[in-house]
Amino acid sequence: MLFSTAFAAVDRPLVSTNDAGEEVVIDSLSLRRRHTEAVKSMVIWRDTVRAERMWREIIAEDSLYAPALYNLSKLHDMEFSEAMEFSQRAYAQDTTNKWYMWSYAQKLMDVEDYDRAFTLFKRLMVIDNMTPATYYYLAYLYLVKSMPYSAIAVLDSADIRMGRHVILSKFKQELLFDTRQYDRAIAEGQLIIQESPYDVDAHLTLAQAYAKAGRDSLAIASYEAAYQVDTTNLETINELWDYYVEQENLDKVFELEERIIGDSKLSVDRKISRVKRYTNSDGLYRDNYFKIGRLIHILAKDYPTNRDIVALYTKHLYYGGQEQEAFDYIHRRLEDDNVTVDDYILAIQLDEVLEEGMQYIHDLDRALELFPENVYIVTLSASLQAKFGAHKTAIRLLRWALKRSENDEDRSSLWTTIGDMYNEQGSMKQAFKAYDKALELNPENSMALNNYAYFLAINGGSLEKALAMSKLAVVLEKSANSYSLDTYAWILHLMGRDQEAKKYMSQALSLSGQQDPTYLAHYADILWALGEKFMAEVYWKKALEMGYDSEELAEHIATLKQQSSTK
User: Fold this and answer.
1) Which pLDDT band, with edges at 50, 70 and 90, does 231 fall under?
2) Are 170 and 135 spatial neighbours (Cβ–Cβ below 8 Å)?
3) Are the C-beta atoms of residues 501 and 492 closer than 8 Å to each other?
4) Between the CA of residue 431 and those of 129, 279, 426, 452, what are the distances in Å?
5) What total of structural domains would you count in the chain?
6) Which residue among 332, 352, 381, 524 has the highest number of C-beta atoms inside a 10 angstrom radius?
C-alpha cells in the first residue's frame, strides 16, 4: 500500500509556493525519489524518525504533495489534530484515491463526524466494493442513523459479492437480534458455526438467538456446546448462568455458580461479591440455605484466612442455627498465627449475641493486648468498663481513641459515646458538651442527635431544640428505626402533642415487635394522657411482662393517677 502511494498519479502544477510566498519550480522526480526513500526507511529499516523527517521536508518544499501528507497522517505517535489535517489535505489533492479517502473517513469516524464519514464510505463502496471493512463501517453508520434494516441490506450485499465473512456475519446477527428477526439470526449463526465450529462466541450467539426465539432446549444445547469447546471459558458459564436466572431455574443457577466460584481465574473479591448477592436477600437465603452454604464452603476451603470469607462462613453457621459450630469455628481462627483484628471483632460480636459473658471479656482483653491501637477494640473495651460502672476508665479509653482516630466521622461517633458515658454518670453538662463536639465534627450524626435530644428533653432542656434535633435524626436514618421514633414521640408527648406522639410511638412499637419495655411504658403514658386509660393499663402490664422495673413503674403510675385525680 505504501509503495503504491509513492507513484500515485497526481495532477498538480509543477509550480508551488514556498514559506516566503514565492513561486518556485518543483523537481517532481526528486520529490518522488525522496518519498520512496522515506517509505523504505519506514517499511524496511523501521526508522520512523527518519521517515517522518523526510516527509516533513517534502511538504515544506511542496505543501500539496499528497503521498507525503497521507503517510504523515498514518504515523502512530502523531498528534490527532495534526494527523487529521494531513489526512484531509491528502484527500483534497486526490479525491479519487481510495487510500486517501479511507484514511480521511476513518479520522472522521474517530471524531464522530458521521455525516461526512457516511458520504465517504458510500463513495468507497463504488470505488472498492471488495473490502470487508467498508461494509462494516457503512452498516455501522446506517445503525447510527437508526436505519438497522439498511445496515442489514449492506451486510447482505457483502455476502453476495465476497462470500461469508465471520466478523460481518456476527455484526449482521446482532442487527437481526435488534430487529427481532430471530429465525434469520439463527440461520446466520448456524452458517457461522459451519465455517468456524470451534468459535465459542459463535455458539454463544446462536444460543442467545435460540433463547430469544423461545427454543429453550436448543438454546441449552448451544450453551453446552460452547462450554464443551472450552471448558475453562468463564464467559460461557456466565452466559448460561444468566440464561437460567432468566428462566428462574434456581437449581441450575446454583449448579453453575459452583463452577464459577471454583474457577481460579475469578478473583476472590468477585467470588465474595457473587455469593453476597444471595446472602443479602433474606428470602432467597432462607429458601436456598443449603445451596448457598455449598458456595460458602467452597470459599472457606479455598481461602481459609480471608477475613470476609471467615465472616461469611461464621454468619452462615449462626443463621442456620449452628450456634456452637459458629462459635467453635471463629474461636479456632483466633488460635492461628495470622489472626486478624477482624477475626477478633467477629468473635467478640458472636460472644455478645450468644451471651458468653466470660468469653466476651477474655476475647476483648486478648484483642486489646494484640491490637492496642485499634480504635474499635478500644471503644468496645470502654463500653465493657462502663458496664462494670468504671465510667472514668471508659471515658479515658475513649479519649485515647480520639487521638488515634483517622477521620471526623469516627471522632464524632467517639464523642457521642463519651456523651452517653457522662449521661450514665449523671454529668449532664459534660454530656451535652460531648454531644456538641460530636455534632461539630459531623452535623449529620443521627445517634448524637437522637441521644442529645432525648436527654435534653427529659432533663428540663429546651423541648423545641430537642424536637428539631430528634426530627433531623429520624430524617437522616436511611431506614426507619424504633429508637429514633421513640425519642421523637416522647418529646411530642412532653410538649403535650399526644395525638402526634401516639402515631410515632405506635410505629416504634411495631418496629420493635413490642418487645422493648421502655417503648411499651412510653406508649401507655401517651394513651393515659389521651384519656385511653384502659389501654394504658394494658400496655403498662405488657411493659412489666417485658422486664420493666416493677417498683419504678408502680411509683410512676401512682403519680400519674394522683395528678389525674387532682385535675
Assistant:
1) low
2) no
3) yes
4) 84, 40, 8, 8
5) 1
6) 524
How far apart CA 46 and CA 184 sit, in angstroms, is: 47
3-state SS, one letter per residue, for 129-149? CCCHHHHHHHHHHHHHCCCHH
d(CA 440, CA 268) in angstroms, rounded, equals 40
> In this structure, what are the phi and psi dihedrals at residue 225, rounded to the nearest 5 degrees?
-65, -40
Whole-number Cα distances in Å, 389 to 91, 164, 392: 88, 84, 9
Distance in angstroms (rounded) separating the CA atoms of residues 341 and 330: 12
Q: Determine the Cα–Cα distance for residues 138 and 517; give it in Å rounded to an integer.
A: 74
User: Are 524 and 502 contacting, i.e. CB atoms less than 8 angstroms apart?
Assistant: no
Does any domain span residue 80? Answer: yes
298 in a domain, yes or no? no
Q: How far is CA 109 from the centre of its chain?
A: 32
Least confident of 43-57, 200-214, 433-447, 518-532: 200-214
Q: How far is CA 230 from CA 169, 238, 259, in A?
A: 22, 13, 14
CA distance 379 to 364: 11
Cα–Cα distance, 292 to 283 (Å, whole number) = 12
The helices-and-strands tally (H runs, E runs) of the chain is: 33, 2
Find, among 528, 486, 487, the residue nearest to 511 by Cα: 486
Query: Mean pLDDT across the chain, nearest whole number?
Result: 85
Q: Look at residue 429 in the predicted model and tell me its pLDDT.
A: 93
Average pLDDT over residues 44-71: 88
The span from the CA of 415 to the CA of 334, in Å, is: 31
Residue 518 · residue 486 · CB < 8 Å: yes
d(CA 64, CA 93): 7
Q: Is residue 11 part of a domain?
A: yes
Residue 6 structural domain = 1-93
Q: What is the DSSP string of 79-103?
A: -HHHHHHHHHHHHHH-TT-HHHHHH
CA distance 344 to 507: 36
Residues 6+ apart with CB under 8 A from 552: none
Outline where 111-249 has alpha helix (H): 114-127, 132-144, 148-162, 166-178, 182-195, 200-212, 216-229, 234-246
Residue 203 forms part of a structural domain: no
Gap between the Cα atoms of 452 and 484, Å rounded:
11
| pLDDT at residue 4, as a whole number | 41
Helix, strand, coil shares, percent, the chain, to 5: 75, 0, 25
Q: Of 399, 332, 404, which Cα lies nearest the Cα of 371?
A: 404
State the amino acid at position 511 in one-letter form: L
* Angle, helix 533-545 to helix 550-566, in steps of 10 degrees: 170
C-beta of residue 514 within 8 angstroms of C-beta of residue 547: no
Whole-number CA gyration radius for the chain? 38
**Residues 6 or more apart from 335 whose CB is under 8 A from it?**
none
Q: What nine digits make up the cell of 376?
A: 474499635
Phi and psi, residue 24, nearest 5°: -130, 150
What's the pLDDT band for 251 if we cut at 50, 70, 90?
A: confident
Helix (H) or strand (E) holding 65: none
Taking the CA atoms of residue 458, residue 460, residue 463 and residue 466 in that order, the dihedral angle to the nearest 10 degrees is -60
